[in-house]
Write the structure tokens for this entry.
Amino acid sequence: MEEKDMQEMEQGGLTLESLAPLPGSRKTGKRLGRGESSGLGKTSGKGNKGQLARSGGKVPAWFEGGQMPLYRRIRKVGFRSRKIRDGINQYQIVNVAELEKFESGTVVDEVTLASIGLGPRAHKLAGTKILGNGELTKKLTVKVQAISQAAQAKIEKAGGTVEIVSLSKSAVAAE
């Protein structure tokens, strides 16, 4: 605060008459078209002629003055399927070796798989698929959305059964 303000506050506080904006906080606007000597006369700082000198003469930010625009110069490469992006046809992969964690006689479905962190994720909307990597020695009843032939053979060889079921919404929500 300035010395003057400090004195006023000591004498009984600031009054409405003594309030003033801080120095440099108020700036006068440009006065366009007010004579040559003002520096902003005649063309009012817009230069001579052309689109930008006209009223409403704006140019889009991406316009390059007739030059071939960037979005047309660069290559258009690649394609990402909506099904892959949205996870419509993606399975959560579980190998046969990971089924060894369950006790013999257990019914393995999306809920029991989710309990050990192998259930379907929210972005894998197709459910769970069992692949045949590894060995299985326990008799299990497996209820999943998809299974490879090798995995089905290994489960049945161990004495278990395989059942293909549709994905329940509760298992995805639980994850």
Summary: The mean pLDDT is 86. The longest strand covers residues 91-95. DSSP finds six helices and six strands in the chain.
